[in-house]
Amino acid sequence: MHDNTNALADRPTVSFCTYTFNDASLAHGMLRSVSDWTVQPDEIIVVDDGSDVPFTLQGKVENALPVRVMRLPENMGFTTAKSTGLNAAGGDVIFSADCDARMDAGYLETCIRHLRDQSVGLVCGSCEQGNGQGLLDRYLLYFGENSPASGINEVKFISGMAFALRRAVWEEVDGFTGHTRRFCSDHALSNRIAAKGYKLIVDGNVKATQERRLSRLANCRRTWAWCGTPLVDGTVAQYSLPEQFLALFTNPLLQRADIISQKGHPAMLYFDLLYISYVGLQMTEALGDRGRIPPDAGVKFQKMLAGKLGPYPQLFNQLRSDLLRLESWPARNGRLPDSADASRLARECDWSDAFYFADIFKDSGVLGWLNREGIRLVLEDEAGTDFSAYLKAELR
Asked: Cα angle at 241 between 235 and 246, to 5 degrees?
């Protein structure tokens, strides 16, 4: 337990860290926004994660700020970039924000107020993915991990978009040391700080929003990058893969479909259809490579998908095209299971129940509407958009 005494001086020093890779315009926008904050940082660290054109300060406003640019020789990813900046910070409070985040003026001040309580180890405001201009942005506001928050709540996870902590806590948990993945550093930090007995606080009275837009393909890759390894590692041998797929993906998809219908944005269902198709092919490939499922499980999944959606050519052709771009079509065969003791996991995979969502969407007319109108709306929504350079590198 931690003593509820004042953990900070009346005016703690603050280090602000942000990060850029081939998105200098967003980093410049972040620096220009600092003057609007109710609390000004004592130092600003910009980590240039190996941009093709080195990041430099521009104009009187940026050059008047206490900015230090730290350039990495090549693109190393979020974890290394953030670790570099946070380890270099010298303030009592470290405030970290992605360069595409834009915070309310009182965001940092609110975080500092919470950090005065020594039992609080990590804090953020309501972190909202997407800038609200596109279908996927609104989808992420409804269903994303960094969805809108209200009130003040103790949580188990703090978003990496914009968070603050005392430097003493960062040093106590040894930062990201030992976390070797290029992403999910926010999950690692949240877990480490919670394990030390500190509280993680989200204050929904202040907000950070994401400026850049995310494409539907990058969203699939990103979600799989975050969740793929634990999903594959957590596959339980006493259940068949289709049974687990039904529980983990099919049933939640139908729950989201009800919400999407209420919101009046049925084209969003394509994001779910794309992801459930992508994750099915990814899981069968990964488990097939480990010999934990029949070698033809992925091919059977693909055939079931084609059988259910093939009658809707506009929808199915776009889905197949997206899966090709995601390098998940056609399905590959895995190796034979190592032994007969793989239990039900090694039995023939019957995907019928896992695909019952397609029958519901067929009967309700959703698949027909997506085929006639929905796909066109999705494509028009993303047309001409310049998506994140950072994500292109992170998820390659």
From this structure: 105
Cα separation, 26 vs 178, whole angstroms: 30
The predicted-structure confidence for 239-280, as pLDDT tens digits, reads as follows 778 888 999 999 999 999 999 999 888 999 999 999 999 999
Question: What is the distance between the terminal CA atoms of the chain, rounded to a whole angstrom?
Answer: 42
Q: Does domain 14-210 have CATH number 3.90.550.10?
A: yes
Question: The pTM is what?
Answer: 0.75
Distance between CA atoms of residues 128 and 139, nearest Å: 11
Instruction: Please enumerate in sequence order all residues whose Cβ is within 8 A of that of 123, keeping only pairs 6 or more positions apart, or say none.
Output: 111, 114, 115, 158, 163, 164, 165, 200, 201, 202, 203
Q: d(Cα 243, Cα 328) in Å, to the nearest integer?
A: 21
HSE of 217, CA atoms in CB hemisphere, 13 A? 20
* Residue 15 CB neighbours (<10 A): 23
Residues contacting 335, CB < 8 A, separation 6+: 288, 289, 291, 295
Containing 233, the helix (H) or strand (E) segment is helix 216-233
Report the 10 Å Cβ neighbour count for 209.
22
- Residue 203 contacts residue 117 (beta carbons within 8 Å): no
**DSSP one-letter code for 15:** E
Tell me the pLDDT tens digit for each residue of 154-191: 999 998 999 999 999 999 999 999 988 777 789 899 99
The rounded distance, in Å, linking the Cα atoms of 84 and 72 is 9
Contact 47, 94 (CB under 8 A): no
Residue 254 exposed, middle or buried by CB count within 10 Å (0-12, 13-18, 19+): middle
- Give start-end residues of each CATH 3.90.550.10 domain in the chain: 14-210
Count of other CB atoms within 10 angstroms of residue 198: 22
Check if the beta carbon of residue 131 is closer than 8 Å to that of residue 207.
no
